[in-house]
Design brief:
Layout (H helix, E strand, L loop, with lengths): L2 E7 L6 H9 L6 E7 L5 H9 L5 E3 L7 H9 L6 E5 L3 E2 L6 H9 L4 E3 L2 E3 L4 H24 L9 E5 H7 L8 H11 L4 E3 L5 E3 L5 H32 L3 H23 L7 H8 L15 H29 L5 H27 L11
Parallel strand pairs: 1-2, 1-4, 2-3, 6-9, 7-10
Antiparallel strand pairs: 4-8, 5-10, 6-8
Length: 366
């Protein structure tokens, strides 16, 4: 099986030279590597390419067409059996059999997704690391139970060239990778998520970088949801194996509320969870709440919250141990109680902009 690796490069080469050297150290022989330069040939890119001259084929249209179009131009004309896409901020494992494992998987599956572990260098990237763990759990569930996936994270994945051609490559949209995965899902493409193929990826480490990335990711989530939710809902009834998968994904979030109502359902109104949440900001240091929060609401709320957190903590911790992801209990505590709710609010706000046709300024060409 011939494998063609494509690495898009825009403005900065990041880990390009290290990636190419790691790929050339693989024990897989039938391999070609392409650096797809989208936009001007900057001096940092030129210097990086000079260090790996002869090891990589440079595709350089000298125009900023956007990631999807640049990769399509490079990939669709290739005569190859499989395409492997790596963003240039990916760090490959020190495993000379990595591509052999990819090829082995592609004999049985149409898409092979690779777990991405975030390189945590700041509080921002540490929070994103937990987000990626959530995505990894979902991907593993779809792979193990459904054998199909409605999305793919394009930073690192492999696909059969025949499927790529059948789909016409990537669409020129903001969510080109998620859209590609969703269209492959509709064709019943066989999907595998292999923990042995874990790679590492860089992420924003400053507030400015995080805000810029968050706007794009949130818009991606909204667009993917609008395009695919109804189809997934119908698919769940046609393919019952999707139902336990989806339930397993939402269980940690739903369990806290379910326990709350189960404990005192005879005498608590459905407004009490809201009252409890409103009361929390007025908590005294000694633990005495204002009149708005009575003892039953306090005790039931704490129990349900603790159960939901401990279950979610256990799932993330167990998965991280199995996948050999780094897992920090302290940052997860912050992620669960502060960061995840904030991201949810941002997603809701982005939904509102789309339904009201409000434009979102993105430094991202499609």
């Amino acid at each position: 099986m011939r494998i063609s690796v494509l690495i898009p490069v825009y403005r900065e080469p990041k880990y390009l030279t290290e990636m190419v050297r790691s790929l050339r150290a693989q024990d897989y022989g039938d391999l070609e590597i392409f650096a797809v330069v989208d936009g001007p040939m900057t001096e940092p890119i030129r210097q990086a390419l000079a260090e790996i001259e002869g090891s990589v084929t440079v595709v350089f249209p000298d125009a900023h067409t956007g990631k999807a179009e640049a990769l399509n131009r490079a990939a669709l004309s290739l005569e190859t059996d499989a395409l492997v896409f790596f963003d240039n901020d990916i760090v490959l494992p020190q495993n000379p059999g990595f591509l052999s494992r990819v090829a082995e998987k592609l004999e049985r599956y149409d898409i092979v997704d690779m777990p991405k572990e975030v390189i945590s260098e700041s509080l921002f990237s540490a929070m994103i690391a937990h987000e990626y763990q959530s995505l990894a759990i979902a991907s593993l569930l779809f792979s193990a139970i459904v054998r199909r996936s409605p999305g793919v994270i394009g930073a690192a994945f492999a696909v059969r060239k025949s499927l790529f051609d059948r789909l016409g490559g990537f669409k020129r949209v903001v969510h080109e990778d998620g859209d590609f995965g969703a269209r492959a899902f509709r064709l019943h493409a066989r999907y595998d998520y292999d923990l042995s193929l874990k790679v590492k990826t860089g992420m924003p480490n400053t507030l400015g970088e995080w805000v810029k990335q968050r706007k794009r990711w949130t818009l991606i989530n909204v667009l993917w949801f609008k395009d695919n939710f109804l189809y997934l809902l119908r698919s769940a009834f046609r393919q019952p194996s999707m139902i336990p998968t989806v339930l397993a994904m939402v269980l940690p979030s739903a369990l806290s509320l379910a326990v709350f109502f189960a404990l005192k359902w005879q005498r608590l109104s459905f407004l009490n969870p809201a009252i409890f949440m409103i009361a929390q900001p007025f908590q005294f240091p000694a633990g005495v709440f204002l009149w708005l929060s009575h003892h039953a609401v306090l005790s039931d709320g704490l129990v349900s919250t603790a159960v939901g957190f401990l279950l979610t903590f256990s799932i993330y911790g167990a998965f991280s141990a199995a996948a050999r992801f780094r897992f920090n209990p302290l940052t997860f505590l912050l992620y669960y109680f502060a960061y995840a709710p904030l991201v949810m609010l941002i997603n809701i706000a982005m939904f509102a902009t789309q339904f009201r046709a409000v434009s979102v300024d993105l430094d991202w060409k499609t």
